[in-house]
């Protein structure tokens, strides 16, 4: 997006605050088994992109931002999450 | 009741800082600013200056502290010279980009190698591209007045750029004269407290840091253009502040950007910057008494460059001689920086005067009355004959 | 979305998959809260979109800009705001070590975090003074031939009130130390080991596991130094061999058996010396 010079606020220091839908980066995605899950919230805390939200039924992943790193699957103490190939 | 005190350039600048009520200052000594920062430390210790004083571990740290403080909305001050200015160069570029109005005193001193302790304008002129405003001062009275004016210029909403004011090391910073010290109450009326609303770190008001606004990366052209527009606005602001100061305290400095001294019937003018203007005035008086049509222009503001004002002078005269207390090795026609800028300013005039460049005062070498007479006479000769024999002359060269 | 309000570091940033950086930043903000001003972002910190005001002067001005912010807030009477400054290991140990040292000696009132990912990662994995012995980087392709700087202990000798080493896998320890640091006045130094899958060359899913293994193999002891008194905060009964920590990282793959042995001996010696000083004053 390009801005005319009159529209840019003055004094803005160099910053890279762009957000994008990084979900397109992922090759693998987490698949959670809601029956095994104990709702310990470790996956919520350890997701680098804060994509996991704990609801009453269990963790819900926001696939718009999930980069498929697999930390949630690696840290789950009861192995309730497996990484599966993402659908195109 | 304003008092009179015998003060040198550094003392006057320090007193000016005290009168301007900064919130945070950061100091580091380097000859010739040592008496300035010692004065600031003494004022802080006695309680007369109620600012947070951070004695930094090097100049780079000093300017970083000031930049952080200004980003948080404080009024600030620091001072440096030659090697120190070059050391803090990296941060000096970041400050105009963030539009933080700082005030910094540069006590001009030659940069090594070979270097010396005495003035050359290279250290401040090195900053002419990055957006800082620059004023060059002639005497100690101007030091105290310009410190107060600098805050008003920099913090004006049309400008919001940092400003250097340049005091020749030793030649001005250590030369004393009777100085009229303004009253604190009058300065408070002239200079209200600093209240930024454009860039101000505050957890309650995160507007510029909002990540939902797409990043302004890739917009440097536009941001830089805005800074150029601010420099153009600064010409008006400097003139206005000069006039307002004159109404309140009774002293003006030309029109703020330049001062024309006895140029009414001149056919040739000399242009000088800094303390050598004082010497030039004496010589111009002497030559005018002999009937010679030579005038003097004191260039107070180098950034923003007073293009229109110099063009007005140029339309009246036949020859101009610019005395550069600096050098630019390998430059076009070997001219000093002031000569090159003036030639660009006058290039498109239909009937432009001849331009001579003089390089004098390098390494602090005293620009004497004889040197001034020589330069004035060369300008007069070119004005008379219309022929330029030597475009640039290193005046004091021992050859 | 509901997630966004809970987190000060938002999703959708530019960090690599598996980066431990945002995890650490979120842990910090969840303890310290929103009434903060941040100075600096670490090297890769620019990739984390955040909802609190921040300013940076690149890597050469780590703690001094924050000093300016602290002094400005004091002059304006806004002393309830916490000033936090983040630095990468490159800025803290190489480019701006002098600045960090001077700010600590002045005891400026801020919390200083070193996000130590053990090399200059954002510019493409070049070594810094905090790169460990034997590690591969693009500027030390045969392995770094001198040891990692012991920055937390050096900072302790600046006579500051609080020094701590933490890592994200031990999050309760991290939270406890942050809560302690929040209530102390003066220069508080917290050194965080931050695994980096791009620079350490490991599987992105193993970031947190590697930070756990670093502690369990004596590579990264967790301790705190409060007013000079050292206490080691994690003392397991049994330690895992260091090869368990080194093998998953391709940056140590070139090491021979002797190389691993050498590192094991160095870490054993360091751990013994640390335990000797446990409970005593280091200065």
Walk me through this protein's architecture.
The complex is a heterotrimer of chains A (88), B (399) and C (283). Chain A is α+β, with helices and mostly antiparallel strands and 88 residues long. Chain A is 11% helix and 18% strand. The two termini of chain A are 27 Å apart. By secondary structure, chain B is of the alpha/beta class. Chain B has helices at residues 9-20, 34-46, 59-71, 82-87, 89-97, 122-125, 140-155, 184-190, 220-249, 276-289, 307-316, 337-346, 369-385, and strands spanning 3-8, 24-27, 52-55, 76-80, 103-108, 133-136, 163-168, 176-181, 258-261, 268-272, 294-299, 301-303, 319-324, 354-359, 392-394. In chain B, the strands form three sheets. Chain B has a seven-stranded mixed beta sheet, sandwiched between helices. Chain B has a six-stranded mixed beta sheet with strand order 9-11-10-13-14-15, with helices on both faces. In chain B, strand 13, helix 12 (337-346) and strand 14 form a beta-alpha-beta unit. The longest helix of chain B is centred in the middle third of the chain and has 30 residues, at 220-249. Mean pLDDT of chain B is 91; it is low at 207-214. With 283 residues, chain C is of the alpha/beta class. Helix content of chain C is 37%, strand content 14%. Chain C has an eight-stranded mixed beta sheet, sandwiched between helices. In chain C, helix 2 (21-32) packs across helix 7 and helix 3 (62-76) packs parallel to helix 5 (97-105). The B-C interface holds B 23-24, 26, 51-52, 54, 56-58, 60-61, 64-74, 76, 90-91, 94, 98, 201-203, 205-206, 208-211 and C 10, 34-37, 39, 49-55, 57-58, 60-61, 64-69, 71-76, 81, 98-99, 101-102, 106.
């Amino acid at each position: 997006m390009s801005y005319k010079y009159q529209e840019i606020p003055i004094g803005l220091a160099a910053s890279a605050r762009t957000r994008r839908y990084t979900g397109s980066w992922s090759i693998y995605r987490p698949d959670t088994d809601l029956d095994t899950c104990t709702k310990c919230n470790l996956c919520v805390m350890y997701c680098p992109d804060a994509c996991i939200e704990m609801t009453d039924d269990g963790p819900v992943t926001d696939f718009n931002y999930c980069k498929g790193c697999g930390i949630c699957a690696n840290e789950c103490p009861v192995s309730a999450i497996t990484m599966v190939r993402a659908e195109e | 009741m304003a008092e009179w005190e015998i003060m040198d350039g550094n003392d006057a600048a320090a007193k000016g800082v005290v009168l301007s009520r900064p919130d945070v200052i950061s100091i580091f000594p380097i000859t010739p600013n040592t008496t300035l920062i010692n004065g600031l430390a003494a004022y802080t210790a006695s309680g007369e200056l109620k600012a947070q004083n951070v004695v930094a571990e090097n100049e780079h740290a000093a300017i970083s502290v000031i930049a952080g403080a200004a980003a948080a909305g404080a009024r600030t001050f620091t001072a440096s010279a030659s090697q120190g200015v070059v050391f803090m160069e990296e941060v000096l570029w970041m400050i105009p980009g963030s539009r933080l109005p700082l005030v910094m005193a540069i006590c001009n001193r030659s940069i090594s190698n070979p270097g010396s302790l005495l003035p050359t304008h290279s250290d401040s002129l090195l900053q002419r591209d990055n957006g800082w405003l620059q004023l060059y001062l002639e005497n100690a009275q101007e030091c105290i007045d310009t410190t107060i004016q600098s805050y008003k210029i920099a913090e004006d909403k049309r400008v919001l750029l940092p400003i250097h004011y340049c005091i020749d090391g030793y030649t001005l910073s250590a030369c004393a004269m009777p100085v009229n010290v303004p009253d604190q109450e009058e300065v408070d009326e002239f200079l209200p407290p600093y209240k930024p609303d454009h860039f101000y770190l505050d957890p309650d008001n995160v507007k510029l840091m909002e990540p939902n606004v797409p990043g302004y990366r890739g917009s440097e052209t536009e941001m830089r253009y805005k800074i150029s527009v601010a420099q153009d606005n600064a010409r008006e602001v400097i003139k206005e502040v000069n006039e307002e100061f004159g109404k309140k305290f009774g002293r003006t400095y030309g029109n703020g950007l330049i001062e024309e001294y006895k140029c009414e019937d001149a056919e040739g003018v000399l242009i000088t910057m800094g303390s050598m203007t004082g010497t030039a005035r004496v010589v111009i008086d002497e030559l005018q008494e002999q009937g010679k049509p030579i005038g003097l222009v004191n260039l107070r503001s180098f950034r923003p460059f007073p293009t229109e004002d110099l063009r007005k002078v140029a339309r009246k005269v036949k020859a101009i001689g610019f005395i550069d207390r600096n050098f630019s090795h390998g430059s076009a026609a070997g001219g000093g920086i002031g000569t090159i800028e003036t030639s660009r300013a006058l290039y498109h005039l239909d009937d432009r005067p001849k331009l001579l460049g003089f390089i004098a005062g390098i390494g602090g070498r005293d620009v004497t009355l004889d040197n001034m007479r020589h330069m004035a006479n060369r300008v007069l000769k070119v004005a008379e004959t219309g022929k330029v024999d030597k475009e640039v002359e290193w005046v004091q060269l021992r050859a | 979305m509901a997630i966004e309000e809970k987190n000060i570091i938002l999703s959708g940033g530019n960090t690599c998959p598996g980066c431990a950086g945002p995890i650490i930043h979120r842990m910090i903000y969840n303890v310290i809260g929103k009434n903060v001003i941040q100075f600096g972002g670490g090297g890769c910190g620019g990739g984390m979109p955040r909802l609190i005001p921040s300013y940076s002067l690149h890597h050469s001005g780590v703690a001094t800009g924050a000093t300016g912010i602290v002094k400005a807030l004091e002059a304006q009477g806004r002393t309830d705001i916490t000033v936090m400054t983040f630095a990468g290991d490159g800025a803290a140990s190489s480019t701006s070590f002098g600045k960090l040292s001077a700010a600590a000696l002045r005891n400026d009132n801020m919390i200083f975090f070193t996000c130590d990912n053990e090399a200059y990662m954002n510019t493409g994995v070049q070594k810094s003074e905090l790169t460990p012995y034997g590690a591969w980087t693009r500027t030390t392709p045969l392995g770094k031939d001198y040891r990692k700087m012991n920055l937390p202990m050096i900072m302790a000798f600046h006579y500051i009130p609080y020094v701590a080493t933490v890592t994200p896998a031990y999050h309760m320890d991290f939270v406890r130390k942050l809560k302690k640091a929040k209530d102390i006045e003066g220069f508080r130094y917290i050194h965080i080991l931050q695994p980096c899958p791009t620079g350490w060359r490991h599987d992105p899913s193993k970031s947190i596991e590697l930070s756990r293994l670093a502690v369990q193999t004596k590579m990264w002891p967790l301790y705190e130094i409060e007013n000079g008194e050292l206490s080691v905060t994690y003392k397991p009964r049994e330690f895992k061999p260091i090869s368990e920590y080194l093998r998953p990282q391709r940056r140590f793959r070139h090491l021979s058996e002797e190389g691993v042995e050498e590192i094991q001996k160095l870490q054993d010696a360091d751990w013994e010396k640390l335990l000797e000083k446990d409970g005593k004053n280091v200065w």
